[in-house]
Amino acid sequence: MPRALVTGASSGIGAAIVARLVADGWRVTGISRRRGPFEHPAFEHLPLDLSEPNVVAEAVANVDAAALVHAAGVLKVGELGALDHEDGAAMWRLHVDVAERLANALAPRLPQGGRIVFIGSRTASGAPGRGQYAATKAALVALARSWAIELAPRGITVNVVAPAATETPMLKDPMRAGVAPKLPPLGRFIQPAEVASAVAFLLSPDAGAITGQQLLICGGSSL
Fold it and tell me: What is the predicted pLDDT for the residue at 174?
């Protein structure tokens, strides 16, 4: 069985991805600070605080993975004129710096046909009150497109799955009280399992010719 390395594995989208990949026959190494409720013989927890990115490369040095899924994320909001620069730096470290360090450590060891998927956001195109967050998610698209062309000769694909407001604990975070999530035109929030299904497809042989792309799962929010 191939192995996938999944960050943010203890809850929300990351936990849904872990469950889906294990159900599809993957072995999964899940990174999170605390172990979540998921238990399965094919799942291994790697305790790691990704807010300290300097330890990332060493922590994954012995992980033999065929796929990387960076799902760990945090949302901090703020309008221009009242931005917290430490909040912006924290989001950049987790979303972008960690993605860079993980890919840099794992890509040389990925097998022919390996996969990299980043969880982005529909707000990467811009959203009021979420400028710092949107910038980090837009950066993931730039990284994915750059690395996709670098890794194409080895058959390794790099893509971004970008959901709109998804029904996870982040959706109810009191830190975002001043910027309420927008209900997509479909009349409901995106479900973590729907994001996980898209990730599972991008990791499958059927998606071998899809690379450097951003897949929006927005319920019509981008229309």
Answer: 58
* Cα 48 to Cα 10, 29, 37, 63, 117, distances in angstroms: 11, 12, 16, 13, 19
- Within the chain, which residues score under 70 in pLDDT? 172-179
- What value, to the nearest 5°, has the Cα angle with vertex 108 and ends 104 and 110? 105
Rounded CA separation 52/90 (Å): 10
Strand residue runs (E) in 9-151: 27-32, 43-47, 67-70, 115-119
Annotated catalytic sites, by residue? 133
Looking at 2-48, which runs of residues are DSSP E strands?
Answer: 3-7, 27-32, 43-47
Q: Indicate the length of the chain as a whole number.
A: 223
Helix (H) or strand (E) holding 14: helix 12-23
Instruction: Check if the beta carbon of residue 48 is closer than 8 Å to that of residue 26.
Output: no
From the list 87, 86, 59, 60, the residue with the least C-alpha distance to 74 is 87
pTM of this prediction exceeds 0.90: yes
The pLDDT value recorded for residue 178 is 59
DSSP state of 204: S
